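Retro notes (design track)

What went well: tokenization of the new backbones is finally stable.
What didn't: we kept losing track of which sequence belonged to which structure.
Fix going forward: every design gets posted as structure first, then sequence, in one message. First example under the new rule, 107 residues:
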């Protein structure tokens, strides 16, 4: 399970009728137009993996968004945790020590 799927699972209580269709694809009731409220068997919203992140699209109202944006709107605290974990590797400096490099001191 990658980081995005982990946070989709954590966000699932805020995503109405979320169901995993297959690897990298989830369907749900649209979070913007609410399509599916009158007929509980219709789901027009999809979260799908594209590249290294997830995007959202509703096939009824054509709403489009990224997982980050949805998370920011529905659960800002979870969004901050997600950003911290997702981009931790980018902002964590790596320091390598090489015995060939010696400290130069001024005399």
């Amino acid at each position: 399970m990658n980081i995005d799927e982990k946070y989709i699972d954590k966000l699932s209580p805020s995503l109405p009728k979320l169901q995993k269709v297959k690897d990298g694809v989830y369907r749900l009731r649209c979070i913007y137009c609410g399509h599916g409220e009158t007929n509980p068997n219709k789901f027009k919203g999809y979260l799908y993996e594209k590249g290294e992140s997830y995007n959202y699209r509703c096939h009824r109202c054509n709403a489009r968004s990224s997982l980050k944006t949805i998370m920011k709107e529905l659960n800002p605290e979870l969004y901050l945790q997600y950003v911290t974990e997702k981009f931790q590797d980018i902002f964590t400096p790596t320091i390598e020590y090489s015995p060939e490099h010696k400290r130069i001191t001024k005399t």
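Added context from the reviewer: The longest strand covers residues 45-50.
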